[in-house]
Amino acid sequence: MHSSTELNPQDTSTRRDTIRNVAIIAHVDHGKTTLVDQMFGQAGIFRENQAIEERVMDSNPLEKERGITILAKNTAVNWNSVKINIVDTPGHADFGGEVERILRMVDGVVLLVDAAEGPMPQTRFVTRKALELDLLPLVVINKVDRGDARPDEVHDEVLELFMDLEATDQQLDAPFLYAVGRDGWASYHACDRGVDLTPLFDTIVDYFPPPKVDDEGPFQMLVSTLDHSAYVGRIAIGRVERGSVRVGEEVTLLDLGEAGIVKSSSASERARVSRLYTFSGLERIEVEKAEAGDIVALAGLEGVEIGKTVTDPEHRERLRGIAVEEPTLSVDFTVNNSPFAGQVGKYVTTRQLRERLYKELERNVSLRVEDTEQPDTFTVSGRGELHLTILMETMRREGYEFQVSRPRVITRHDDAGELQEPYEEAVIEVPSDMVGVVIERLGSRKGAMTEMKPMGESSTTRLRFKIPARGLFGYRSEFMTDTRGEGILHHTFQDWDGWAGPLKGRTRGVLIADRPGKAVGFALFGLQERATLFVSPGDETYGGMLVGENVRTDDMDVNVSKEKKLTNMRTTASDENIKLEPPRKITLELALEFIEDDELIEVTPDAIRLRKRVLDPNQRKKAAKKASQSS
């Protein structure tokens, strides 16, 4: 580890020409991870006979199932003796926290934009973050082989976006490439079909600046992300900002706080570097020494957290921490107390639930967890419904049992004392003949239309709305019904604005099981004409569990375990075949959108059930009466 007699040497910084650090950013489904696959193949990462999966960077099982990137990941390829460190980032607005912290490691961003869809809400979000950090963008207009591609219009839309976000003159001069990531080619002109990704690699090397480094200064590194190994414990990943570090050397881990010199030794802890890794393709390569400018992984730091600074023990200088936007949505996690509690899950106690939620904070920087007055309930706040449901699904697969309340938006007061709530920008693409019903529905949810324009020759119209975040609760399923599955809806956090007033909730009531027992086909057949069912014959139910959605506005207690009376009389009418429609499959996203304040989602490793908070029907009526009187 190098050190110097002065804390801030005059200026010993140079550029490391053999390294480029870039992040790939884009809206969800615009092709980031597929493009990285092709970059691996053409940079010689895979052997000729190696079996290659699609989207190799999406290694998490949930990522493979959903076809989205959830966690930002580091990798590297070599091109003409230059090491290109690449960070593949999530495209979904709910995982914006991953993008925000990863941008501190890089010197430029490759912005991918779909040649037909153009800039979408998350494109704006991640581009704003990149431009604010003075990163240079390289724009790749992807999927130019689509039948409805409009690369020239999208080129102009991207430049308009840059101007809206007050980009500098240098950022506005960004180079544009045209590509088909799936087929592995890029070109400098929209009308030319490329051969391979050489134009992309060459532009990354020639356009992006090499990292500015200080080789002779004392070691300094900001922790941007964490990993964990069963063998070496926590692994801190970040870019070495200054100096160098070797395996076995002593370093100091500084607590979170203001940037600058840290004089107090109580705000730091000493540790020894036990392992040191750099990235190459999908693998981590163990090395003895790492130098400034490279993205590395350090093991041996027990108390490491995202945003902390690792330094030379003699020069404790803290770097500016990682600012992440605040959560906008919260739910209550409660220990499962239903009649079926503890039958399947491995982790069912308050202590186990609390430990798991607080452990999540180590890696999930945009999440918040708070204790409440009830010892078995914890408030968890996140960036959106998907952000929270991914956590729930992960915990469910790990063997946890818990219950979740209806989501609620987080509010705040502005300087004048006015109540504010989060607003979303919703971008909707629907067939032009369905525009009216979408405008009507969102209007009733306090949405204000800001833009409406046709999408080329495709008889599709794009609508933009500014709408309260709570106005979108439960809308997606309604939207898919209204547009017969042909509509596309994307939304992302826009800003905080004045409270929009009361919004109507669910317009339909529910069917509630009035006793425990197995659901019987005979009983369900009599109910399906007036409800959409959630259960199948043979499913176990308990009193207070929701078994269907009523076509009317009121709730109805029903007996789903009622069997047919046996007699020795036989008639054609009474012995007709029972034909049941398939029940609605309950997913976590659907459940969060569906439930009301007096209901809960019961999450277990083998099932997701809906239930009333108060299971006893008499107690429920008393509670409802009391609530109506107090309101």
What does this structure look like?
The chain is an alpha+beta fold. Helix content is 21%, strand content 32%. It is built from 14 helices and 39 strands. A hairpin with a 3-residue loop joins β10 and β11 (233-242). The chain is globular and about 95 Å long. 42% of the residues are buried. The model is unreliable at 1-11, 46-60 and 63-71 (pLDDT under 50).
Helix content: 10-25%
Distance between the termini: 66 Å
Query: Mind summarizing the main beta sheet?
Result: 8 strands, antiparallel
Provide the gyration radius in Å: 28 Å
Give unreliable regions as ranges: 1-11, 46-60, 63-71
Distinct helical segment count: 14
Question: Residue-averaged pLDDT, rounded?
Answer: 81
Q: Biggest sheet, strands in spatial order?
A: 15-13-20-10-11-19-16-17
Which structural class should the secondary elements be placed in? alpha+beta
Give the CA-based shape: globular
The amount of beta strand, in percent, is 25-35%
- The counted number of beta strands is 39
